[in-house]
Amino acid sequence: MRTFLRIIGVLVVIAVVAFLAFLFIPVQRTPAQAALPDSWTPEEGQGEYAMRLGDCMACHTAPGGEPFAGGREIESPLGVIYASNITPDNQTGIGGWSLDDFRAALYDGVGPDGTHLYPAMPYENFGRISEEDVRAMYDYFMNDVPPVDNAVSETALSFPFNQRWGLRAWNWVALSDAAGFTAESTDPELSRGEYIVEGPGHCGACHSPRNAIMAEAALDGSDPQFLAGGEIAGWTAPALRGPNSAIRGWSADEVAAIMGTGRNAHSAVNGEMQLVVQDSSQYFTDEDLQAVGAYLVSLNDDGPAPEVTDDGATEALLASADPSMALGARLYLDNCNACHFANGQGADEVFPALAGNSLVTAAQPTGLISMILNGSELPSTAARPYRLRMPGFAARLSDDEVAALASFVRQGWGNAAAPVEAGSVADLRDQGDAATH
Amino acid sequence: MARTDPKKDVVIVGLGWTGSIMGIELAQEGLEILALERGPDRATVPDFQYPKVIDELKYGIRYGFMQKPKNSTLTVRRTLEETALPMRKLGSFLPGDGVGGAGIHWNGQTWRPMAEEFRLRSYVEENFGADLIPEDMTIQDWGVSYEELEPYFDRFEYMAGIAGQAGNINGEIQPGGNPFEAPRSRGYPMPPMPEQTDMRLFREAATAMGYHPFPRPSANATQAYVNEYGMQLGPCNYCGFCERYGCINYSKSSPQTCVLDALKRYDNFSYRVNSEVLRVDLAADGQTATGVTYWDDEAQEEVTQPADLVILAAYQLHNVHLMLLSGIGEPYNPQTGEGVTGKNYAYQMNGGTTLFFRDHHFNPFAAAGSSGTSMDDFAINQIDFAAEGFIGGSYITAGLSNGQPIRGISLPEGTPGWGAEWKQGIGEWYGHSMSIGSHGSNMSYRDCYLDLDPTYTDRHGRPLMRMTFDWKRNDIRMTQFMKRQIEPIAQSMNPDSWRSSYKSGGARYDIRPYQTTHNVGGAIMGTDPNSSAVNRYLQAWGQHNVFVLGAGAFPQNIQYNPTGAVGALAYWAADAIRRDYLPNPRPLM
After folding, report:
1. Does B69 reach chain A within 8 Å, measured CB to CB?
2. For chain A, what is the domain count?
3. pLDDT band for position A7 (50/70/90)?
4. Between the CA atoms of B11, B17, B20 and B24, what dihedral angle is there, to the nearest 10 degrees?
5. I need a labelling partner for B175 at 20 to 30 A (CA). Which of A288, A301, B46, B481 fits?
6. How distant is the Cα of A347 from the closest Cα of chain B, in angstroms?
7. Is residue A306 part of a domain?
């Protein structure tokens, strides 16, 4: 018995020592992944371009706020996380940071004082950013971005998520891959596309599913889980590969078009993706847009485009203009048909197709309901400046009507998604009302 | 209260079609530009949002998008002897206000004038002799030829995304198009609108009589379209709410759908709304403008806005009013024929025949503003003026642009205008009528002009502009000629009944019923400073840094809707400013 207690005591001491070590021994920072001479300086515009690739602006700028001065509320499953000020302000920003500090934040999610950043910062993906892009970005933030004195709200999550040491444990488990990027393909375009998608573009942060511990289920394209569909702020971030791929059948040009302009012949960006186009991808060079397009298309070449199962019944029903048609179809005629048409095909680059549209058929109908209630506005881009806006119908349609309409479009033209309940509409309407009051 | 704002390179008065075009063309030069719009800002969502804008009472009857006479009107008289009175209620014409101007609430009928119309006086003199021109008719050549303007028509049509069927490409007559049109360098950017029942009946009848019908060119998109600025149109859904309404559907070409979001991307461009320009300020020597003074409705104060270049891009009536108020050009004097500003105000001579068919369902509710089949067999270049005894011409169209219940229902002759029989008539005849209309030219005359009213002032204390205008024998003869051509076509279609409405001898101008918002002249272009208010580049003769855009430049009215020519002239002037004026600011003629 005494022996047993002694063993227990030793184990407790070891555990306490280990825990203290866990809390207080500094985290090992990932070193630079390539040796660049100290004298290396980015070319004119290279740093800003690297920032655009990484889309630092979308999260680190509050709506209506100074660029990069932080304060945007990032919805996470753990609660609201406030994006930090990354202008070179000494007190409230990253003014005192060294290059190594900066790289550690990108690669390891660790601040200069060893504090763990919440993984809203996509350091899982940013570990793949090249040393050249890290250096260029650092140079940009230190030299080109004006410092802004803006102390952002402390992120205040509830226990246990407010225990940042827990993130160290999380990182141990989640960051299974070492930093650094190795392309799968030797084709320069595909490897460039893969680099942007996996690394700075951090597409997987939204478009990959999360595993049991809320980490991205995969970080590189060789794993079929990578970009297999995720969730962001309650909206489905559609799968970009696999049987439900939103881009199955699209050409590289069409992917490049929607990334560069927010719209293409099939669809238009919605939800958080509008910020991505507005602040990031519209600034990509044509070559990079093509590379991203080619790479994403290459993830979809494992089978033919799904058979279109539209038997024409929906169009025939709408065209019949039969007054006794069901509520959902009638509401579609009265509210949606003018732009999206009876065949559900919309019009190139102006009115998105609803047939086969990933927002319409998403497992989680939040995005579709929100779209009907609140409408949506496309970002203005250089090639397509028009802020085309779909009006919201919240003031016109009841919860039951929105549900009937949403269910109709989810099942029309060969779409086969589950119907929507009026309760889901009521919840989202309440949230919308709360947000605007 | 008054303030002076920092100087701009360019100030643009009005942000409709011409202001938007000039704005983006000059923004590309990197100039600092401020556009001043007297009305409110307007965007498809929320201002033209479905179903809000589909409200005939609010917008069709109560003129929701038009200027309010209490804020802006003019006085009208028919002869030099009459005393003009203020127009206190809109009627005959409907100037818009707000961003987009009348470009948001037009029908979208987009034409090129005939080559002959740009040199009308010369054409008449050469072909029929100078004696044919009545003594009081003051028609002139424009000072610019169709051939010179062709690239700018092309530019406007491709920017605005016009749907139509070309009739003459580089001299080669195209099947299905207008064989009498001047040659165009290429076809329209979009295929024409689909043919509806009334259009088909008319085409068949006109063809049987040896005429040459073709689809009316339209700024209602027939497919998705992207223009040179990357701006976009979506295909029209034929909702039947074009004229007097903003388009719910991104389908009607307008400054909003074709220019503005692209223009707003330029950091060197900005615009202010609810800012009515009161006058153009001239330098002490009167040789240049120094900027404008406007009323800032938000701040409730006058603002002096200095600028190197002043672009008058308001509606024709307001451009002329500003010129008169500011001393740009000598005011026209109808007694002596001297002076230029306000000279040659002209309008449009229209008429039509309505046909009733019990057995045809025309479904007028499914239509667009430009739906129609036209013919130019009695156009200006097809008529022997000497034989017919008038100068002018008309295009003829069958088309239904809407089936709106308050204004859109025609009833056969003899049906009462109210009560049970009227109700019965509506029930019987809604959707069973079609029309064949004449859209005709209007010549300019010595005593049809614009000047400042001696009595009445506006809310800013400025004299109102006075319009002196009446119908003349020449133009009534023209419309009566059209009646004689249209009625046989109508009869050949065997309607159950039909009724005609054309002005006849003794007709006087009546400002109450709506006729058309094609007011032209008053700031006419030309090559002689003694007979025109602006030169062939739309530059004021006396102040080289003032350019005056719009239909005020027309020396007499064309036989077509004006927007095509207004757009082409805006590009023509913009090109002259960019290529010739900016490198060396000076009188271009």
Report:
1. no
2. 3
3. confident
4. -120
5. B481
6. 6
7. no
Whether A224 has its CB under 8 Å from any CB of chain B: the answer is no
In CATH, what number is assigned to the domain containing residue B283? 3.50.50.60
In this structure, the answer to whether residues B277 and B396 fall within a common structural domain is no
Same domain, yes or no: A33 and A129: yes
CA angle A127, A237, A240 (to 5 degrees): 75
Pair B383, B264 in one domain:
no
- A385 → closest Cβ in B44, B46, B262: B262
3-state secondary structure of B183: coil
What per-residue confidence (pLDDT) applies to B389?
97
**A70-84, A408-422, B354-368: least confidently modelled range:** A70-84
User: From the candidates B360, B432, B518, B544, which is the catalytic residue?
Assistant: B518
| ipTM here | 0.94
DSSP state of B30: T
Mutate to test the interface with A, among B41, B159, B228, B232 (most CBs of A within 10 A): B232
Total structural domains within chain B: 2
B201 and B127 in a common domain: no
Whether residues A165 and A196 share a domain: the answer is no
Residue A175 confidence (pLDDT) above 90 = no
Asked if residue B236 belongs to a domain, the reply is no
User: A residues 396-425 near B, CB within 8 Å?
Assistant: 396
Same domain, A351 and A415: yes
Of chain B, the end-to-end C-alpha distance in Å amounts to 40
Distance from C-alpha of A237 to C-alpha of A75, rounded to nearest angstrom: 14
pLDDT digits (tens, 9 = 90+) for B111-142: 999 999 999 999 999 999 999 999 999 999 99
User: CA A162 to CA B163: how far, in whole Å?
Assistant: 62
Is pLDDT above 70 for B55? Answer: yes
pLDDT for res A23: 64
At A435, the pLDDT band (50, 70, 90 cuts) reads: low
Q: Looking at the domain assignment, is residue B229 inside a domain?
A: no
Instruction: Examine the domain organization and report whether A344 and A400 are in the same domain.
Output: yes
Q: What is the CATH number of the domain that holds A246?
A: 1.10.760
Nearest to A245 by CA among A220, A275, A224: A224
- The residue among A299, A322, A340 that closes a domain is A299
A264 and A204 in a common domain: yes
Determine if residue B271 is left, alpha or beta; phi over 0 gives left, psi from -120 to 50 gives alpha, anything else beta: beta
Q: Reply yes or no on whether B518 is catalytic.
A: yes
Chain A residues with CB inside 8 Å of B250's CB?
Answer: 339, 350, 388
Mutate to test the interface with B, among A333, A380, A386, A397 (most CBs of B within 10 A): A386
When scoring B20, B52, B226, B269 by the number of chain A Cβ atoms within 10 A, the one with the most, hence best to mutate, is B226
Least CB-CB distance to B235: which of A347, A375, A391?
A: A347
Domain limits for position B82? 1-145+253-347+448-462+514-589
pLDDT digits (tens, 9 = 90+) for B380-389: 999 999 999 9
Name the nearest CA neighbour of B35 among B267, B269, B292, B264. Answer: B269
- Kindly report the pTM of this predicted structure: 0.94
**Measured between CB atoms, does B227 come within 8 Å of chain A?**
no
Q: The domain spanning residue B211 has which CATH number?
A: 3.30.410
> Could you list the residue range(s) of the whole structural domain that residue A16 is in?
2-174
Q: Is the dihedral of CA A181, A184, A187, A189 positive or negative?
A: negative
Categorize the per-residue pLDDT at B94 as very low, low, confident or very high, splitting at 50, 70 and 90. very high
Query: Of A109, A142, A174, which residue is a domain's last?
Result: A174
Say what the pLDDT of residue A437 is.
45
Residue A407 lies in a domain: yes
Are B373 and B481 in the same domain? yes
Strand partners, B26: none
- Residues of chain A in contact with residue B234, where contact means CB-CB under 8 angstroms, are 339, 347, 350-351
Sequence-distant (≥ 6) Cβ neighbours of residue A312 within 8 angstroms: none
Please tell me whether residues B22 and B49 are part of one structural domain. yes
Average pLDDT, chain B: 97
